[in-house]
UniProtKB/TrEMBL annotation:
Taxonomic source organism: Aeromicrobium panaciterrae
Tree of life domain: Bacteria
Pfam families: Pyr_redox_3
Protein name: Cation diffusion facilitator CzcD-associated flavoprotein CzcO
Length: 495
């Protein structure tokens, strides 16, 4: 089936990134938008992830759109379902649902040079056309299944944390969790009391610092609703602290590595307060610098390992059998439930998440892999006209995904403003502007913990297959916002 109508824009992904882009395009006067979403509802990561213990770990006042504050967060760090509710509220308030098409799995998009539009191929054979293509497919949207011998022979229940089965009762089960990333840190303390036995398979330990979480009293919430400025002040303060920590401990490691050392001491003391056994503490202590891998926050992760029914296994997994896991020392642990907290595949399949073919047949994924991962200001790539990639190399502001989205919205405003002023049909970033940006980001990374810290054992997804930490934009958020509003207009060619 072919639809000959050419939409103003096709946005791929109905998470916060896609919704932010749709809001901005709406403000710029584009009316015919289509938002394609592979899941059956909106919310992106906050729709897909529903595992027990899910919550934000950046203060909620910061982890939300600045133009759409939410006075109703119940805690400083809101639980996952409140984020999903917030996403629905935004979709309703900005009337985005009418543009959304769920269960629409986009297989690829091809630039049609003759007609100056994108052709988007949807699973099932449907095609649609749009003048602009914006991909907002997130950074953590392709779940990683571990390649472990025999995993397919396991006869019990297998659950990846992105596909939580609410109907499955964990009570009295003998479970294993593979993985000790941010997801496992939230999940393990939640499920441990319900299970008969829980064995946690840790390959790489993670830095965990305390989480200063608390309920937000009703009177404070109603004050936020009545006087939004009060919540803005809280947001400003929280964002300011995070920004300083991010810039100092991650980006300016050369000068400020004492911040990382302090954070390591805080994490170790946090662990020592909850675990007496020095052997267990040693196993849970990372051997890489704080900041190499995304640190996590929890007040009950370490405590969970002091329970009689929770066991930490640090010997490597050799194979999985129908009824258990065998480690390389020959020990077998019998289980009936296998929980995979094994994270996401970013570099092989997420950049980009779909096949994108630009001008002269250039394949974005292949080009990124054969050359280097790169995107001008984290949004545009040469040879890909009328295309903005919102989950790109060097786009992620470490502060909060919402600052990434909002700086990209600002970039869109300036770019589309110029396109409209010139009455251009196409825009495309120049190779020179792109190269200058990549050189600048590469140089800035030289001061970061990724270049100077001891990161080789961290196995961090921040690093790609070429050993480059190419996700985070290695500048302050202030710089990202400033450049989004002032980038040289001649960085793009307009035709
Ligand atoms: P992750 O950080 O990538 O952790 C995956 C874990 O699985 C790691 O411990 C990894 O070990 C382990 N693993 C993977 N394959 C394995 C294998 N074959 N054998 C043994 N272990 C294996 O994934 P995640 O915990 O889902 O977190 C991903 C990101 O999601 C976080 O960094 C964060 O950005 C985001 N997140 C955010 C929140 C929030 O509160 N906002 C909550 C959860 C997640 P290695 O380290 O050795 O590879």
């Amino acid at each position: 089936m072919t639809n000959t109508n050419v939409h103003d824009a096709a946005i791929i992904g109905a998470g916060f990134g896609g919704m932010g882009a749709a809001i901005q395009l709406g403000r710029l006067g584009f009316k015919d938008l289509v938002i394609l979403e592979r899941e059956d509802d909106l919310g992106g990561t906050w729709h897909v992830n529903r595992y027990p213990g899910l919550a934000v770990d950046i203060p909620s006042s910061t982890y939300s759109y600045s133009f759409e504050p939410n006075p109703h967060w119940s805690r400083l760090y809101a639980p996952g379902e409140e984020l999903k509710k917030y996403a629905s509220h935004v979709a309703d308030k900005y009337d985005l649902r009418k543009n959304m098409r769920f269960n629409s799995v986009v297989e690829g998009a091809v630039w049609d040079a003759e007609n100056e539009h994108w052709t988007v191929n949807i699973a099932g054979g449907e095609r649609l056309h749009a003048r602009y293509l914006l991909t907002a497919t997130g950074f953590l949207s392709q779940p990683k299944m571990p390649e472990i011998d025999g995993i397919e022979t396991f006869a019990g229940k297998v659950i990846h944390t992105t596909k939580w089965d609410d109907s499955y009762d964990l009570a009295g089960k003998k479970a294993a969790v593979i993985g000790t990333g941010a997801t496992a840190v939230q999940l393990i303390p939640e499920i441990a009391p319900t299970l008969a036995e829980l064995t946690v398979y840790q390959r790489t330990a993670i830095w965990v610092t305390p989480k200063s979480d608390a309920k937000i009293p009703k009177r404070v919430r109603s004050m936020y609703a009545r006087v939004p400025l009060t919540q803005r002040i809280v947001r400003g303060f929280g964002s300011g602290v995070l920004e300083v920590l991010m810039v100092a401990a991650v980006l300016k490691y050369r000068r400020f590595k004492m911040f990382n050392k302090i954070a390591e001491r805080v994490a170790k003391r946090h662990m020592a307060r909850q675990i007496d056994d020095p052997e267990l503490r040693k196993k849970l202590t990372p051997d890489y610098d704080f900041g190499c891998k995304r640190p996590t926050f929890s007040n009950d992760y370490f405590k969970a390992f002091t329970r009689d029914n929770v066991h930490l296994e640090t010997t490597s997994i050799e194979r999985i059998e129908p009824d258990g896991i065998v480690t390389t020392d020959g020990k077998k642990t019998t289980i009936d439930t296998l929980i995979l907290a094994t994270g996401f595949n970013l570099w092989d399949v997420n950049f980009p998440a779909i096949e994108i073919i630009g001008r002269d047949g250039r394949n974005l994924g292949k080009w990124w892999r054969d050359n280097r991962f790169q995107a001008y200001e984290g949004v545009a790539v040469p040879h890909f006209p009328n295309f903005l990639t919102l989950a790109s190399p060097y786009s992620y502001s470490g502060l909060s995904y919402f600052t990434t989205i909002e700086s990209q919205m600002k970039h869109m405003k300036r770019l589309f403003g110029e396109v409209s002023k010139r009455r251009a049909s196409t825009f495309e970033v120049t190779p020179e502007a792109n190269a200058e940006f990549l050189d600048r980001m590469t140089e800035k990374l030289e001061d970061s913990v990724f270049a100077l810290g001891s990161c080789s054992t961290a196995r961090s997804y921040y690093f790609n297959q070429h050993g480059e930490a190419a996700i985070l934009r290695p500048t302050s958020t202030i710089n990202a916002f400033r450049e989004a509003g002032r980038f040289p207009l001649e960085a793009y060619r307009y035709a």
